[in-house]
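hi! just following up on the protien thing from before. the input was this:
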Amino acid sequence: MHLPRLLRYFGGTCLKQQDSYALYRFQGSHVVMIHTEEGYRYYEVQSPEKKLEAFDLVVSYMAKMETNPRIPIWDKVFEFYNNLSKDSDLVLIEKYEPAFKTVKKDFNHFHTYLSGSAAMEHPLYTSVAGDSVFEKRFGQGPDKRILFPLYNIQNEVCGYFEDDLEDIRPYGESAMEHGLWYSQIPEKIEALFVFSNPKEAMAFHQRFQLKNAVYPALGSINHTTTRILFQIHRLTKMKKIMLSFTGDSKIAGFVRDLHFISFMEEEFRLRVADGGIQIECKQKDPKAFARFYTHCRDYNEGLRKHFLKHRSILDQHLVNAYSLVLSQDGEQINLRVPLEINALQLMVWSYYKIFLHTTLDILKPKKVDWNLEWEEIPSLQNEGKEVQVEEYRIAQ
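and the predicted 3d structure came back as:
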C-alpha cells in the first residue's frame, strides 16, 4: 500500500514535510511518515521506536469506526484492507520514487531538532554549561530557543520541553503526556529529586550543588509518566522520593503534589470541582487517621476564631467554604479541600507527614519557584549563610 496516500485517504493532514520525513495530524494525534529500505513506515510521536506499516494504519482506523458491532474486528479489518488493495491509487507500483530520502529504520525526527550548543542568554543556562549533570540534557532548537529532551518508557526521545522566555511548555508535537526529562545519572546515586520542569531542576542544583543526585521533571502527571518515574526510582534504590513541584503560584505546586500522590497511592482519588478538590481515600490506620482528623479540626477552629476577630456574627456558610470538610463512612474517607493556599498546604503537610513520611519528602522554595530562589544565592553567600536542603522540607 502507498502509505502517504492511505494516510491522506483516512483524513490525515500533513503539517510539515522535510527531506527525511513528514509530520501528520491523524485521529487527534501526531504521526511521522518516513521511508526506509523496507518501504514506507510511520510512527506515533509517543513511540518513535515502534515503526508501523499500512496494515497497522488500517487496524487503527477501523478500530475507531462505528460499524456493525456484531461483526468481529478482524473480519472488518481484513475485508476493508482487501477492498483498499483493489484501488490502484492506493497501491504501490513495483518501482516508485519515494517522497522522502531513505533513512534507517531507527530514525527519530526528534533527534534532528536539538543542536549540540545552547544559546546562553539566561544566566542559569550559562551557569550550568559544561556541567556533566546536564550534559546532552538541553540545547538550542530550530528557532534558537532552549529545548530539553523528553524520554518515554523505552528511553527514546518523544519530544521536548521548551523555554519560550515566558514559561516552560511542550514544544510542537511533543508527547508530553508520555515522557519525562531527567538529568544524567551518576555512578553512585544518593538522592532523587522530582520537579515540574528541567529549569527548576537546574536552579535547584545550582542552589545546593548536590553530588550524586538525579533530577527528573514531569511536565504532565499521569499513569504513564509516573510509571517511568517509579521505574527510575526502583533503579536508584532510593528509600524516598524528594518531591518539589512548583508552578505559576504556590497553589499550583500543592495541587500537583496531590495529583502525584493520587498515582503513588492506589486508593487515593481526587477531582477538582466546585472551587475545591474532592479527595477519596481509604483509612490505613485508626490512630493515624485520628491525628489527621485532629489537624483538620484544629485548622477549621482557627479559621472560625480568625473570622470572629473581624465580624461579631459568624457567617458559617462562608467559613465552611474555606474549611477542610472531612467525613468517614466505614474505611472510606471523604475530604474537600478548598483551592486556598493555607488549606492546601495544611492538607498536603498533614497527609504526607502522617501517612507518607517513610516514602516521600516534599520540599518547597520560599519563593514561587526555584529559579527565583536561586537568583538570591549571591546575597546569601555574601552574608556567609549556608543553606541546607532540609530547611525546605514542609514537614520537619
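The mean pLDDT is 90.
The longest strand covers residues 29-36.
cheers
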